[in-house]
Amino acid sequence: MPRTLLVAFALLSLGTRAGAQELHARIDAHVEAKSKADGVPLSAPADDAEFVRRAYLYFAGRVPASDEAKAFLADARADKRAKLIDQLLAAPEYATRMTDLFHVMLMERLGDNAEWTKFLKESFASNAKWDVMVRKMLRADPKDAAQPGAAFWLAKRLDNYGQNPVDYSGLTRDVGRLFLGKNFQCCECHDHLTVDDYKQQHFQGLHTFFKNTYLASNTKWIVGEKPTIEKTGFASVFTKVQMATAPALPGLMMIDIPAVVKGMEFSEQPDRKTGAPGVLKFSPLKEISERLPTKTNADFTRNSANRVWFLLTGRGLVHHLDLHHSRNPPSHPELLDLLAKEFAARDFDIKFLLREIALSKTYQRSSKLPTGAKEAAHPKYFATALERRLTAEQLLQSVIVATGSDAKAADALRAKYVKAFANQPREPEEEVTPSLKAALFVLHDDAVLGLLKPTAGNLVGRAAKLSDADATDALYLALLSRAPSADERAAVGKVLAKHPDKRAEALGRVAWALLASMEFGVNH
Amino acid sequence: MTRNLICTPAEHRVTRRRFLGSAAGAVGLGALANPLVAEELKKQRKQVLFVWLDGGMSQLESWDPKPNTPFGGPYRAINTAVPGIQISELLPNCAKQMKHLALVRSVSTQDNSHSAGVDRIQRGDPKNRGVTYPFFGSAVAKLVGDGDSGLPPYIWVKPMNGGFIYKDAGFLGPKFGALALGDGKPPENLLRPKDITADEDDERNDLRKLLDKNYTKDRRAELTEANSYAYEMAAQLQKKIELFDLSKLPQKDQDRYGTHDLGRHMLLARRLLEAGVTFVKVTSYGWDTHGDHFNGAASLHPKFDKPFAAMIEDLADRGMLDNVLVIACAEFGRTPRINGHIGRDHWPEAWSVAMAGRGIKKGGVVAGKTNANGTEVPHDPVDVGGLFHTWFRALGVNPEETSYRNAGQPLPIAHEDMKPVKEVLA
Q1: Are residues A495 and A510 in contact, defined by beta-carbon separation less than 8 angstroms?
Q2: Closest chain B residue to A375, measured at CA
Q3: Greater model confidence, A12 or B107
Q4: Which chain A residues touch B if contact means CB-CB below 8 Å?
Q5: Range with lowest mean pLDDT among A282-296, B104-118, B133-147
Q6: Which of B305, B264, B266 has its CA nearest to residue B282?
Q7: Minimum Cα–Cα distance from A438: chain B residue
Q8: Which residue is closest to B224 within chain A, CA to CA?
Q9: A384·B220 Cβ contact <8 A
Q10: Cα end-to-end distance, chain A, whole Å
């Protein structure tokens, strides 16, 4: 049934744009062509229960509430999936969810800041374009009174941590990784040993944009720049040949450093009293912010498209995300070209790209293996949906919504959830990594168990008033957006039969089991 | 002659597979019905205690003193229990245990920075093959196995934070990472709240396992397996909670080991080894004495001397030195030259490593030597690759015949151009 619905839907949408095939259909054509060529079977489309959970988790940052799931499952319209995607993209929760998603990707748990959150949230709420957002982050303009939080991305990386000096190398590495998809870390002292494309010049050229930046205020997160008046000298530790570079994006021309009379570098002098960093006549940050996030910078367009694809599907077309180079080609080269081109053509409209990928059959495939398949195909085929990691915030919001707890409870619990589920700072949260710490948290912490104690209004309290069968259904719908299987129903029935006098508590433990299951803990 | 009560040890050992297989569950020693089998298993244990003195302990104030030489410093050399072997007067207790110890005084390694050195030494500094090699603890967890403790095979007792440190495992994959017990404390949330009984806990976990089984039936299994492993580890650790309560140990033990970090952590390590954990690493920080080195050593070295000697004595008393390979190591030694701050800097060129126990020659041995002033190793320097060969041999793993496989590629477990230090092997 779902398959025919999808086909009908695909035909319908094709019909609306006579001739011009929409991006989501072209995505599928590329993915299907490759799996066909390599004889890799595709999984069936996700069923409605799987899809509604996936979409809510992704776009609203939480599992669907019981009535939302029920309404979707009962909806008979052929285009209900597209309708749901559009509804979620338009909902206020979209900006909150994207803020969390991009915060985790861009800051990698280095730190958080209210102005930064505000910058992200406003940007996503107004569907600001991705190149504009990146420009603001790299420019870190202390004169931007409207969105000073954009500077936090750079400012936090100029902060000392512990007794370590400012990690300029790490900053250069992160610009390369997150905005260009290339990790030049190993090229600080010599050309890369295993990746021929990555040169010491690339690291040093990029580094030269940032080497004179400093943190003017670590309370207001203001970035300052000292004048850049000459090239950076460097030499490979192997060849010892002296080289020099002006600021340069990898593979692009060096930027001329204008000759300035000493003492005349600033058009507005730094103010020692107020700590204002002044305005340079030649600002490398201004240069990179104008040159990096552009339609003509292939590193930027390809990395951006690849990362958006990864955020939805759980794996980059180029894998790993920060290893774009000629000997690590995309799994689907034409598809990455297409996505990068379309993203740029739409002025880096994130919502457009998210929507098209979400509409694809590729995104909407089940995480169950194809019928009869003994083992999973290589993930690069996207033949079966990959399990995607939930952020600490997604888990928290899901637990709150599913257990029917007061939304205000989230604020008191947030720090605990982050501690239990987030990675260490500087470790990208790209993969599902079950941990002892998280297991013990779910098993024993009151931040989880407290929400499963029956109260008048919460899930367990309400279920306690229902028959065994209805209570089981209610818990499954709330936590897993599906009905229990026969063996699960029987197992729950057994537990409840054992505790007639403490039935509500027993229901709490059943709810716990659903919450602690792998099925709840990932977006599948 | 002892009859071997175990036909196929593999059947009885708590293998990683069984740890993962939620249905089978994990079986600890205590759960084995036959006490004779349990005893036999204990005898077959292969274990490691790896004491890591982070920052680098001075060889000149410990295993390789050079009194009355230009760089020798103010401390004397003292006789040990083994005639002809002298060590620094800062290690008087270790001197008494010399008959159990083997010293390699000709260690000469490649890296003089902490950041790279710690990794290089603990990964055995193999040839670059474009992969990240496992730390020694992860390597032993993989090559020797989980053991019979019901606990994770690689436990790291350290000051400050704990957690599961999977990066140690390199290409072996996260499951071979280290369970780090920060400040020797059990992980947070280890104890079940009082209002959940053991039966209720089993009840809810059985239901969780059923859900995971159903979920994984027609999906990729790896992640769910890793998740089940985390829950199994949680359950096993809970059963061993008493291990962490050192207050119940005799006061005498606490006095002998000391109440400072390294003392408490070594005592916990002994308990973990007694419980059968395959690899226990104990880290002590603060050995990087670039300034005021000699006063520093006077307070630091006794903190190592007492618990290390007590550990050797206890393991010997319990017959455990036949099973446990003990190693005291760091990322490098310290410069013979004394710097302007009366300190010693980083010196990988010539330093010492001490070992004892399983597979190591008994009676007190010294292998290799430095020159008269202790500045270099004139003959047959031993790089860490050679130490890895020695340690694997001591554990009965032959690096010539054993290799890892990573994505189909065979990889040597120790640097293939290096050789074990035969003089210290039993």
Answers
A1: yes
A2: B220
A3: B107
A4: 193-194, 367-369, 376, 384, 387, 432-441, 443-446, 449, 485, 487-488, 491-492, 495, 498, 509-510, 512-514, 516-519, 521-522, 524
A5: B104-118
A6: B266
A7: B230
A8: A518
A9: yes
A10: 21
CA nearest to A130, candidates A265, A264, A294, A285: A294
Q: What 8-state DSSP symbol labels residue A142?
A: T
Residue B234 and residue A439: Cβ atoms within 8 Å?
Answer: yes
Between B163, B196, B231, which is nearest A439 by CB?
B231
ipTM of this model? 0.92
Q: Within a 10 A sphere around the Cβ of B17, how many other Cβ atoms?
A: 10
Q: What's the farthest any 2 CA atoms get from each other in chain B?
A: 73
- Label residues A50-85 b or e (16+ Cβ within 10 Å = b): bbbbbbbbbbbbbbbbbebbeebbeeeebebbbebb
CA atoms of B123 and A13, how far apart (whole Å)? 56
Q: Between A497 and B171, whose confidence is greater? A: A497
Give percent of chain B with pLDDT exceeding 90: 68
Closest CA to A321 of A497, A111, A105: A105
Report whether B6 contacts B32 (CB < 8 A): no
Q: Do B211 and A513 touch (CB under 8 A)?
A: yes
Measured between alpha carbons, how far is B259 from B253 in angstroms, rounded to an integer? 10
pTM of the entire predicted model: 0.79
For residues B193 and A249, give the distance between their C-alpha atoms in angstroms, rounded to a whole number: 56
DSSP A58: I
Provide the shortest C-alpha distance from residue A250 to chain B (in Å): 24
User: How buried is A3 (Cβ within 10 angstroms: 0-12 exposed, 13-18 middle, 19+ buried)?
Assistant: exposed
CA nearest to B275, candidates B180, B181, B149:
B149
A518 to B193: CB separation less than 8 angstroms, yes or no: no
Q: Would the pLDDT of A374 be above 90?
A: no
Q: Which of A172-181, B234-243, B392-401 has the lowest mean pLDDT?
A: B234-243
Specify the pLDDT at position A163. Answer: 66
- Which of the four CATH numbers 3.30.750, 3.30.70, 3.40.50, 3.40.720 does domain B45-188+240-424 have? 3.40.720
